[in-house]
Amino acid sequence: MTRIRVVGRDQPIEAPEGSSLLAALLAARSPISTSCGGQATCGLCRLTVLQGSSLLSPVNAKEVLHLGNVAKVVSIRLACQALIMGEGEIEIDVPAVVDVAARKREQARRGFAERAQRRRSVPGTQASPETPLEPAPKAAVERIEWRPRMLNPGPEQTPDPDLPADRKQKSQRS
């Protein structure tokens, strides 16, 4: 049996060889964030191995995907992927449990507030939420009228009467 000491917890956790750190922590009812149940898809079960990293399985591709190559240097692991490979003592630091649903609600609320602020603001001014802004003046719309015109009128066709005089002469020559 391997002994796992968690920073901030008085009692060490005993875990058999071949089990993951996540399974050991959950069996001991130690709080750790996870939403995928140990499938390495959420990346929430990050922890720092302070001592005994040689007793754990090597970092795999799933961990590198979530944590990056720097994780190898600073001993950050995913608890669901770190398997206990030998007997001894491992010391880990588990971050506080994150309420993912609350975090997503807060992100959505902040995003909504930022979008609302952008809609209220006019370029070049600072808008305050207390004072409603007047709508921006509409830019003058240039009206372009399009009329079909014959480019090369034949002898039986007359040039466009709205054509300027100098252009009438050019179109008659061609």
Give a quick set of tags describing it.
single chain; 174 residues; Ubiquitin-like (UB roll); five-stranded mixed sheet; 13% strand
Could you walk me through the main structural features you see in this protein, from its secondary elements to its overall organization?
It is a single chain. It contains 5 helices and 5 strands. The mean pLDDT is 79. The chain has 174 residues and is α+β, with helices and mostly antiparallel strands. Strands 2-1-5-3-4 form a 5-stranded mixed β-sheet. 28% of the residues lie in helices and 13% in strands. It has a domain of 92 residues: Beta-grasp domain (Ubiquitin-like (UB roll)), CATH 3.10.20. The longest helix has 21 residues. The chain is elongated.
Q: What's the number of extended β-strand segments?
A: 5
Rg to the nearest angstrom? 35 Å
User: The CATH topology of the domain at 2-93 is what?
Assistant: Ubiquitin-like (UB roll)
What's the CATH C level of the domain at 2-93? Answer: Alpha Beta
Fold blueprint:
Layout: E1 2-6, E2 13-15, H1 21-27, E3 46-51, H2 61-67, H3 70-74, E4 76-78, E5 89-93, H4 100-120, H5 165-173
Parallel strand pairs: 1-5
Antiparallel strand pairs: 1-2, 3-4, 3-5
Offer a concise description of the structure.
By secondary structure, the chain is α+β, with helices and mostly antiparallel strands. The protein is built from 5 helices and 5 strands; from the N terminus they run ββαβααββαα.
